[in-house]
Protein: Nucleotide-binding protein CLV34_0811
Amino acid sequence: MADSSFDIVSKIDRQEVDNALNQASKEVAQRYDFRNIGASVAWSGEKILMVANSSERVLAILDVLETKLIKRGISLKSLDTDKEPKPSGKEYRLEAGLKEGISSEDAKKITKLIRDEGPKAVKTQITGDEVRVTSKSRDDLQSVIALLKGADLDVALQFVNYR
Structure:
């Protein structure tokens, strides 16, 4: 019998992020507490740039953006933000990047977790920015997926190519 397998990846749907950003931008433009303070949220190259006249307002814009991302099904683990808004003239700025792909350290953590706590018949293989998990038993693969969903990792994981 052939082995069953699946891949563990960390990918972001850019269109969903763009939609969430547009919704957040509309809400920031319409909300009363953001009126006449120069508040905005928009793309700045590959990063998302949030601007307002105080650090509290910038963090409120970040909260609005995070809410929209959650509603669109995008994990906040894939959002890489600075901790503090930076003053720039009379305004405060906060940049947020998007993390895609599994870093080699995170891939090693995932494979170690599967080796230590997963079923013994499961094999893992790191290929680039994804991890392939193979086993003869599909039940073992299901238990690995449940194990990873329950684990507290710093990466948003998706499970694809389940065969």
